[in-house]
What we know:
Elements: H1 2-13, E1 21-29, E2 36-38, E3 46-53, E4 61-64, E5 74-76, E6 81-85, E7 101-104, E8 110-118
Antiparallel strand pairs: 1-8, 2-7, 3-6, 3-8, 4-5, 4-7
Amino acid sequence: MKILIFIFTLFLSLPVWSLNYDPLLIIVNLDSPGQTKALSNSETLFYDIIIQAKSGNVGTILLGDASTSTTTGIVLNAGTSISFSNLTQKAGARIDLRNWFISGDNTSDGVTILVIKLK
Length: 119
């Protein structure tokens, strides 16, 4: 319920110029133990993002850059989430999900991502 309230608040907080943005739901699962996997294979620029470790994960997910591994990164336990706002997007900064990675010890563990993406 908390996540739904946050999402609703997130949409309400978007300014009028947000009509150039679309919501996008992405699910990323690890294909093998110890894998480091990008959150997107194609350019995905975003304004706001919520990343939630799947509630059915056996282990933890680690989130970070390309050097993320099963021992380095931001730890997300099953069902926990983290959110970011790209407030610099208006100034031309480009934050792309291709540069964000997850890792973990268990095949099929993963994350669900809600992105408010640039059109």
